[in-house]
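Support request from a user on the community tier.

User writes: "When I paste my structure tokens into the form, the page sometimes reloads and wipes my input. The last time it worked, I copied everything first. Here is what I submitted, just in case something in the input itself triggers the reload:"
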């Protein structure tokens, strides 16, 4: 019987910091958050490609589609103790976004963003609720299709 995830509790989100040397080569193993997987209340990973129709005078319908830039985006909310851990992972000592690798695992599906940077990092809290750390950003890569599960 096929299993279909129905909510964020069925998903594992793993965020790793990536270190590079002066020549831009990846060094060492990714630094994974202490818990190995983050507890999130929501997440979104998306890919958007700029498309426009190709038409001209005398052509009432598009003759083709022009493919433009591709943009990979993500957003998620980390709560509680994971919020405290993630605040130190998402930015460097100068407060600048660091390179991240984000992996989303479901039962038969795995997605990955590489070259990700969290451009928006916001901490919030309400009396009686867990601390929340909201993250939004962009990535330079997202492999096509479902990745093999490890």
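"...and here is what came back when it finally went through:"
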């Amino acid at each position: 019987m096929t299993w279909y995830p129905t909510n964020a509790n069925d998903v594992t989100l793993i965020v790793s910091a990536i270190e590079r040397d002066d020549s831009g080569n990846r060094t060492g193993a990714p630094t994974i958050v202490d818990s190995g997987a983050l507890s999130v209340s929501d997440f979104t990973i998306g890919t958007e490609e700029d498309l426009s129709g190709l038409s001209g005078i005398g052509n009432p319908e598009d003759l083709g589609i022009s493919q433009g830039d591709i943009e990979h985006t993500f957003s998620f909310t980390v709560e509680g103790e994971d919020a405290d851990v993630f605040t130190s992972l998402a930015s460097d000592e100068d407060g600048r976004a660091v390179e991240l690798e984000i992996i989303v695992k479901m039962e038969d599906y795995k997605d990955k963003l590489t070259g990700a940077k969290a451009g928006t990092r916001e901490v919030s809290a309400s009396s009686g609720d867990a601390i929340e750390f909201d993250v939004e950003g962009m990535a330079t890569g997202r492999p096509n299709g479902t990745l093999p599960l490890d």
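Agent notes: The reload is a front-end session timeout and is unrelated to the input. The longest strand covers residues 64-79. Helices lie at 80-90. Escalated to web team.
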